[in-house]
């Protein structure tokens, strides 16, 4: 069974930025598979000798009223089916939204392990805001900044531990 990690979350939380940082080279965003799985980007990560595949979901159009019912639900469910571990990304700049809660409800239906990630924790002052996401009921959020890389090493340690 290959190790596959899927990044899910509402638009603009920083999924693609995290994906780019974890695969460590921007040109690793390669395959856009046509059809149902369009715009799902796959990359490889090697962390201290442990290798896994990573999927960046989120090829949906923003601003559409039925964006959740349509594309997001489909993408989250596909990711759940395909992966061994889910990285559920939320955003401390925007704070907790209804959209986040809906995705959390979808993820709760799976037996697959979920790591909750509070992204955009660019400085220590934002750590307290990250803790707010505890109320989503998916454990202690992992504070990271995909922009400056803080916390991503610890996140990778956790990912390879859970795979
Ligand atoms: P996606 O829609 O979830 O894939 O989100 P993107 O990766 O496209 O990022 C959405 C916006 O958030 C972009 O403007 C990013 O530069 C910004 N962003 C992503 N990660 C961080 C972060 O750690 N800190 C801050 N301040 N901004 C971020
Ligand atoms: Mg994206």
Automatic annotation (TrEMBL):
Domain EngA-type G: 3-163
Residues involved in GTP 1 binding: 9-16, 56-60, 119-122
Coiled coil: none
Assembly and interaction partners: Associates with the 50S ribosomal subunit.
Entry's family note: Belongs to the TRAFAC class TrmE-Era-EngA-EngB-Septin-like GTPase superfamily. EngA (Der) GTPase family.
Function: GTPase that plays an essential role in the late steps of ribosome biogenesis.
Protein known as: GTPase Der
Organism for this UniProt entry: Phaeocystidibacter luteus
């Amino acid at each position: 069974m290959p190790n596959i990690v899927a990044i899910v979350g509402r638009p603009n939380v920083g999924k693609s930025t995290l994906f780019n940082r974890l695969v460590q080279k921007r040109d690793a965003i390669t395959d856009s598979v046509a059809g149902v799985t369009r715009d799902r980007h796959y990359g490889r990560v090697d962390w201290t000798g442990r290798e896994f595949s990573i999927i960046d979901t989120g090829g949906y159009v923003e601003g559409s009223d039925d964006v959740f019912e349509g594309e997001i639900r489909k993408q989250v469910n596909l990711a759940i089916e395909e992966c061994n571990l889910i990285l559920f990304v939320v955003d401390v700049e925007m704070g907790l939204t209804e959209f986040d809660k809906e995705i959390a409800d979808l993820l709760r239906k799976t037996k697959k392990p979920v790591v909750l990630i509070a992204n955009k924790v660019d400085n220590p002052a934002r750590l307290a805001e990250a803790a707010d996401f505890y109320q989503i009921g998916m454990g202690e959020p992992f504070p990271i900044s995909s922009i400056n890389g803080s916390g991503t090493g610890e996140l990778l340690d956790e990912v390879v531990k859970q795979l």
